[in-house]
Write a structure and sequence with these properties.
homotetramer, metal ion binding (chains A, B, C, D), alpha/beta, Rossmann fold, 43% helix, ATP-dependent 6-phosphofructokinase (chains A, B, C, D), 11 helices, 4-stranded parallel β-sheet, 304 residues, monosaccharide binding (chains A, B, C, D), identical protein binding (chains A, B, C, D), ATP binding (chains A, B, C, D), 2 domains
Chain lengths: 304, 304, 304, 304
C-alpha cells in the first residue's frame, strides 16, 4: 500500500498537483482527517508493510448522511479527484462518491487477489511468499511419525492464496472455495503418498472452506496419524512487500494519477495480460473473480 | 542439528577417529541403520534446518530388549562412544546405554530450551527468531478495529519461547506455564493500553498453558473486540538455523568429541555462563529447568 | 530451477513417460551422466535454490565432435525428447541437437531476465527480491554523514535487475546498459535530494555499466561526501525461490512436457502477456530482449 | 538500538522518571535537540532497524567548548542522568560529561562487538545473521567452474563478525585482524578442498585485513580459478534486529536505568558470563577487546 501512496503523491507532484492524504479511509474522510502530503512525507516508506494512512471501517459511510459528509469534506478541501486504494467494498464506496460528483479512481489493494477485472492485486504476492516461507520451515522437520501438516490460510471467498502457495510449495492437497473437495480423496492421497515413501504431507486449507483445526481433527480420525495444524492468520497481512508488489503498486499508483489527469472517473486501475490499464468499475463488477483452475489441476498432477 | 553433526564428524576425523552416523535415532540403532560419515558427507548442511540423520520415536527402545539390541548393534560396529543429540528423553536413553557399557555424551538439541543444566539448547534461538518474524508481520497491520492478536507458540512445560519472543516483540501479555495467569488482568492490560491509544495488542500463549483459539474466544467474549488468532505450530521447528545456533551447535558438537576422547561418559555438553562445559547427566537431571523470571517481570514493565 | 525439474519429471510420469535427468548440462550429456528420475527423486526440492542436476560449462560441446557425442548418449538411452533449462547459450546448444535429430524444448532460466521472447525468466523474481532485501537493510541506517550508497547488481547486458530493484526500492539513480547515463546528472540529483532533506540516497549500478567501486569513488570525488559501496555478487544467484518463480517454473516445466508430447521441437516455453506458450527458438532469437523503458522513466519520477 | 531506547524510556517512566530523547547524539546535545519521550513514543519500534533518535558525528563535541555547550543543554533541561548508547567513542564522550558533573551510563551498541568489558554488544547478533544469510545464498549456486567466493565483511579492528559468521557458515578460510594470515596457506586449503571434491569454497575477509576485491584478484592469480567477490558493506548495519539483540537491548536499557537510580555513574552496562552487570568505563577501557581464538581454531578444524 505504501508504495502506491508514494507513487500517487510523487507522480501527482511531478505533474504539478497538490496531493492530500486521507487518514483512516472513509472514516477519516467523514471526519475531515486530511493532510497535505509532500514529496518528503512519503520518503522511506516503500519497504514498509501496512499503510502510513492507516485503515478503518466506517459504518457511517454506508449511509447517505455519511456519504454527504465525505463529499462535503472533499469540497471544502477543494479536492478534484480521489484515488481509493482497497478492495471491493472501498470501490463500491467510491462509486457512491462519483454519483455525488467526485471523480474517483480505484487501485486494487487486497491480499486475497479477489477483485474482478485485474489479474493481480497489490499485496497478493507478498502474502503468498509469507505463506510459502512458513511452509518451507515445516518441510524442514520431516520426522517419520508426524506425517501430516494442515495449514490454514486466508481466503474467505477466493482460493488464490491457497492455490498459488500450494502450487509453489508442492502441497499434497489444496482445499479452495472454487473447487469441491472430498476428504476421502484427501485421505486417499495421503495414504498413497505414504506408501510411496513420502516423509510428510502438507494440506493447505483456505479459511473459507473449513477450519484448519477441524480438518486436522478429521484427518487424524480417519488415518490414525498424528496431524499438526498451523493457522497463519494475520501474519499474511503484513511484512515488507515483495519486489513484485512494490513495482505493481508504483505502476498502479502512477496510472491512477494519469487517469485522473485524463479526466477519467469511476475507473479502476488493473493489470491484465501484463499491461497496466484502466477499466470502469461497472465493467469490473459485472465479472466474477475467477481463479485459474488449470493451475489447480497442475498442482494436483505435480503433487502426485 | 546438522551443524552439530558436522562438528562431531569433522572434529572426530581431525583427531583420527572413524565416525558413523545413526539414522533415525534409537529406532535406527536397534535396526542397525548406521553408516560411516566422511568429511564430505557433512558438507553443505550447516545452513539446513532439520537433521540429515532424520529422527524417529522408538517404543521398542524403552524395553530392555530394545536396549540390548541397540548395544549389540554398537558392539558389532565396534563403536567406542556414542554422541546423542536430543532432549530429556534421548538422554535418559543414553543413560540406559551407559549402564550397559557404552560411553555416551549428550548434546542438548531442542527448540524448547527446557533441558536443565544448560543455559541454551540448540534450536532455541532459531525458534524464537521465527516467532518474532511472524509477530513483526502482524505488527505491520495496525487497524483500528482489529485490536487484539493472540499467538500460540510451542512450549508444553517450558515458557522460554513465549517469554523470549514476547520480550523481544513487546507483547502486551505473555502466558507461560511457570507463572500463574489471570485472564482478568490480561483484559485489564488490554483496556489500559487501548485507553492510552495503543493501536494493537499482542498476547503470546505457550501451548502448555492454553489453546490460542480458546484464549482468543475468551478475550473476545470479555472485551467485545475482534480478536485474531495465529497458531504457529511446526513452523517453529524448521528453518535455516541462526548464527547463534550454528555456532553453539558447532562448539557443542566439537566439545562432545573432546569429552569422548577424554574418556568421559554419561555427560551432557552444556553452555553455562557463556562457557562450554560437560556436566554429568545425573547432575543435570537433579535440577529443574528454570526460566529467568526477572525477564518475565521486565517484559511486563516494558509493555506497560 | 528445481521447481522446473520437478514439474518436468512429475508431469512426464503423469503422462506415462520415463524421465531421465542429465547432470551438469552438456558437459554431463557428453559424458553420459544420465540417471532416471522417479517421482520421489524430485521430492522436497521445490524450495531449494540452485539446481539438483548441477551445472557446468562445456567447451567440448561447442565443437561438432562434442555435439555428436551428446547425440550418441541420448540415442543410447533411447531419449526421444530433451528439455533444456537455461539461457541463450543453452538454447543455441539445443538448436544444434535439433539439427542432429533430437527434439528439444527450452525453458528460460536465468536471473538476468535477458532472454528475448518471454516477459519473465525463472530466477529473476528471486534475484530482485534478494536485491531489495539487501537495500532495505541499507535504508535502515540513515545517518547524517554517510549519505550515498552505491549498490552494484548483476546484469552484464540487461538492466532488468537494476531497474526493477531500483523502482521497488526507490533508488535515486539507476544505471543500466539500455540507457545512457551521465554522472553529472546523478550528482545533480544527489545534491537536489540533499537540499530537500533526504537523509540518504541509493544508486543502483548494473555491472555491465560500471563497477560499483569506481562509481562510488567518482561520486565521492565530485561531492566530497562519504560514499559506501556494496557489491552483491553471487548472493543474487541463490536463495530459496519466491512463490512467483516456483509457480512460473512449475507451469513452464509442465508446458515443456506438453510441447514434447505434441511433437513440437526447437521451441522455447515463454510467458507473454501472462500466458504460458511455446515459441520457436528462431523467432525468439530474431528479437532483442527489451526492457520496459517506461518503468525506467517512472523510477526517475518517483525518486524525485 | 530502538529496543534499548524503548527499554530506557519505559523502565524510566515505570519508576516515575521523566525521560527525554537526545536526537543525533552529541551533535544534537550541543544544539539542544531534546524532546520528552512518552510511553507511546517508543511504541512499535522494537522491530525496526536503525535508531529513532538518528545518529550524527560531532567534531565540535571533541572540543572543550562543545562539551560545555552539551552540559549547558543538559542543565537547562534539568537532566539528572544521561544514558549513552554507542561504542568506544561515545563512551569517551560520556566520560568527559561525567568529569563536568553529569552522571552517565553507557549501553554498548555497535555491530562490531569490539567494546572491551562486555561479551556481546547490541547489533552484533543481527549483523552476523545478515552475513550468514548472504553466504547461504552463495552456497546454493554450486557450479563446478566458479569455485571460490570471497566475501568482505565489516570489522576494522575486530574480527568478530568474520569469525562468528565464518564458523556459522563453514567458511574455508577466515581472515581477521587478530590472527596472522598467509595467502599461500589459504590457497593451499583451497587446493586441498578442491582435491577432496569440494564444490565451492568461501573465504571471509574482515575489512580491516584486506579488501575483498584484492584478495579475490590475488587468489585468481595464484590458482587460475574464477573467483567471485561480494562486498556486503552497509547491509550489515541494518535490518530488523534478531531476538537475541532485542532481548539484550531491552535488558541493557533497563539495567542502565537501574544504575542511574542507584546513583552510579561513569559506568557501562555489560553482559559477562550471561549476566547483565555494570562496570566502570575505566575498567572496561583498561582491557582490550579479545576475540575467542579457540573459536578461530575450531573454525579451521571444522572446515578441513
Amino acid at each position: 500500500m505504501n508504495a502506491a501512496i508514494r507513487a500517487v503523491v510523487r507522480k501527482g507532484v511531478y505533474h504539478g498537483l497538490e496531493v492530500m492524504g486521507v487518514y483512516r479511509g472513509y472514516h477519516g474522510l467523514i471526519r475531515g482527517d486530511l493532510k497535505p502530503l509532500s514529496l518528503g512525507s512519503v520518503g522511506d516508506i516503500i519497504h514498509r508493510g501496512g499503510t502510513m494512512l492507516y485503515t478503518a471501517r466506517s459504518e457511517e459511510f454506508k449511509t447517505e448522511e455519511g456519504q454527504e459528509k465525505a463529499v462535503k469534506t472533499l469540497r471544502e478541501h477543494g479536492v478534484e479527484g480521489l484515488v481509493v486504494i482497497g478492495g471491493d467494498g472501498s470501490f463500491r464506496g467510491a462509486m457512491k462518491l462519483t454519483e455525488r460528483g467526485i471523480p474517483t479512481v480505484g487501485v486494487p489493494g487486497t491480499i486475497d487477489n479477489d477483485i474482478p477485472g485485474t489479474d493481480f492485486t497489490i499485496g497478493f504476492d507478498t502474502a503468498i511468499n509469507t505463506v510459502i516461507q512458513a511452509i518451507d520451515k515445516i518441510r524442514d522437520t520431516a520426522t517419520s511419525h508426524e506425517r501430516t501438516y494442515v495449514v490454514e490460510v486466508m481466503g474467505r471467498d477466493a482460493g488464490d492464496i491457497a492455490l498459488w502457495a500450494g502450487l509453489a510449495d508442492g502441497a499434497e492437497s489444496i482445499l479452495i472455495p472454487e473447487a469441491p473437495y472430498d476428504l476421502d480423496e484427501v485421505v486417499e492421497r495421503l495414504k498413497r503418498g505414504n506408501k510411496r515413501g513420502k516423509k510428510h504431507s502438507i494440506i493447505l486449507v483456505a479459511e473459507g472452506v473449513a477450519s484448519g483445526v477441524e480438518v486436522g481433527e478429521e484427518i487424524r480420525r480417519r488415518t490414525g496419524w498424528e496431524t499438526r495444524v498451523t493457522v497463519l492468520g494475520h501474519i499474511q497481512r503484513g511484512g515488507s512487500p515483495t519486489a513484485f508488489d512494490r513495482v505493481l503498486a508504483s505502476r498502479m499508483g502512477a496510472a491512477a494519477v494519469d487517469l485522473i489527469l485524463e479526466g477519467k472517473s469511476n475507473q479502476m486501475v488493473a493489470i491484465r495480460n501484463n499491461q497496466i490499464c484502466g477499466i470502469p468499475f461497472e465493467e469490473a463488477f459485472k465479472q466474477k473473480h475467477r481463479l485459474d483452475l488449470s493451475m489447480y489441476q497442475l498442482a494436483g498432477i505435480l503433487a502426485i
